[in-house]
Structure of Diaminopimelate decarboxylase:
Amino acid sequence: MSERLEDLVRKRAGGEPVCLFAYDLDRLTDHVRAITATLPPRCRMFYAMKANSADPLLRALAPLVAGFEVASGGELDKARAVSGNVPVLFGGPAKTPSEIERALEQGVLRLHVESALELHRVSAAATRLGVTAEVLLRVNLAGPFPSATLAMAGRPTQFGIAEEDLPGVVEAARALPGLRLSGFHLHSLSNNLSADAHLELVAHYGRTVSAWEREFGLRCEVVNVGGGIGVDYARPDRRFDWPRFARGLPGVLAEFPAHVREVDFECGRYLVAECGNYAVEVLDVKRNHGVQYALVRGGTHQFRLPSSWQHSHPFTVLPVDEWDSAVPRPQAEGPVTVVGELCTPKDVLARDVPVSRVRAGDVLIFSHAGAYGWEISHHDFLSHPHPEMVFH
Ligand SMILES: *Cc1c(COP(=O)(O)O)cnc(C)c1O
């Protein structure tokens, strides 16, 4: 825990129970700079905004990344609020015709097209507006995938164009007016922790695109290899080995046709997870049926990530010594289950985690809370107040 974070939590202790997300923008900036500085030629790092679209984060990121990947009209508005000309990639599995039209009016750099019908909608909107829409076709690869990535990639999902439908969609992309087919989009997995597996995956994309070029007689200019670089929530000290990945990348890019001018990454989690902490005060400590519970101000309605991924989220205890000596102060040692303020047994942030001591009035700091935390949560269930958002 950084001193700055501890300071800002301690300043609040003793007032209304602490409940806040704190985002360390210097840490974010350093992390993202270190990543983009080691990208080889042709590679560009976009930020997938769905991981966290808070305005101060976007403003910190805008000068550091190649642009934003957005997946809705709302995200497009947030990108444009930050900058009128930041490059925007427009994705998302179910775009409405009016979103497509607005994206074109707003001058997005490219659209990632997910079906034959969507391709027709983009063509119609571009024709109406008298512009040319640059598109990538998002393909849901049939596999087989390299063995290291098999567990996550290649399952049925609603995303992208089935590989067997690709010939027809490529033909349509060439025939329809208002379109310029620049290449393919191949985001296939999530939260990958292995640099070697990720290199194998990107190499696989390169071979796949080369094969399609031969099959369809195409010249591909852009390949989007997606996001999916992960965070190990069970062992957050074991970070994805970015330096190893960056060292391997030039060799892997040799699998891509030489005329591919741009290989786009669009990472969310890996860029922003680390800069966020979720700090919540322990309201009560009790034992029920042999299990020790710490009940906090906050919970899964503000931080749904651990329940969504079915993990115990890592946290540390910040001891707060102030306490009214006239009232009993419950405490627990050993395994403790951290739960929130909702009236449902599913409101669990961490289960049976050994602690040396946790007392009512202490503050728990959940680390790696910057991605898919507040963003994915059902904030208004039970109408508790929202947490404070601190950008420091
Ligand atoms: C969610 C998503 C991303 C970002 O994924 P991360 O795992 O956060 O890196 C990138 N591209 C697409 C199409 C996505 O849906």
User: Anything to note?
Assistant: Residues 195-216 form the longest helix (22 residues).
